[in-house]
Write a sequence for this structure.
């Protein structure tokens, strides 16, 4: 229970810190993008000093959370913190920042295994790779919303890199994520509830492909949001199986 609470709070704190740093890094670009023009730093309703101060507070809370954990988890947490902080700046020169974001989000998987057992078994890396594939897929849909604006202001993204092959590559990434989750379920010996959750996640992915078929920005954003169902289905399957 203690580990569960630490990881839930830590995930919330680090995601929040990452969002603050992302808005700080993009403060000169966000005013020129319709979807992000109302962000506090873009509107200058919050100063850069205030944003950095909030980031520092969140980082200190995250640091306090990992102090009670074992040494392997603390080392992995340091790497995860570096991934989270550096991601927002990659869009200047790296054409696939969505995959880097997936690594930052998925890093909590080996951390959780290390905290529980003191080691990172192969199944942890299978799950980590599934998160990288899934995040790259859904964040590419998110990037498809801003593709035209990003081309104008010079921000790089997987949506720009993939071009007209975007839907096909997103489908491949979704299939990869589902296959890796299936492998993880097999390795963990999970039962019918997990496979039902995975079936719902598969249906969710197919629905997302339907939504992005015309690359309409509003529909791409709806497809991105539909990943809440994907994640909930997988989590619910794991939870019900263990219960």
């Amino acid at each position: 229970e203690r580990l569960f609470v630490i990881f839930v709070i830590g995930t919330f704190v680090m995601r929040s810190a990452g969002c603050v740093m992302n808005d700080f890094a993009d403060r000169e670009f966000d005013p020129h993008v319709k979807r992000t023009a109302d962000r506090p730093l873009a509107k200058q309703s919050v100063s850069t000093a205030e944003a950095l101060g909030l980031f520092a507070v969140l980082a200190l809370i995250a640091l306090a959370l990992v102090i009670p954990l074992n040494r392997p988890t603390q080392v992995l947490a340091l790497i995860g913190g570096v991934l989270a902080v550096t991601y927002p700046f990659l869009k200047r020169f790296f054409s696939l920042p969505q995959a880097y974001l997936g690594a930052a989000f998925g890093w909590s998987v080996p951390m959780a295994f290390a905290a529980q057992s003191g080691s990172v078994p192969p199944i942890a890396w299978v799950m980590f790779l599934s998160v990288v594939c899934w995040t790259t897929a859904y964040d590419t849909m998110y990037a498809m919303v801003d593709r035209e604006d990003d081309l104008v202001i010079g921000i790089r993204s997987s949506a720009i890199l993939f071009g007209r092959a975007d839907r096909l590559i997103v489908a491949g990434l979704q299939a990869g994520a589902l296959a890796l989750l299936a492998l993880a379920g097999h390795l963990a010996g999970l039962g019918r509830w997990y496979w039902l959750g995975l079936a719902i996640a598969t249906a969710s992915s197919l629905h997302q492909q339907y939504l992005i078929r015309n690359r309409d920005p509003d529909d791409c954003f709806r497809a991105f949001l539909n990943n809440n169902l994907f994640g909930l289905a997988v989590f619910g399957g794991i939870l019900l199986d263990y219960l």
Observations:
- The chain has a mean pLDDT of 94.
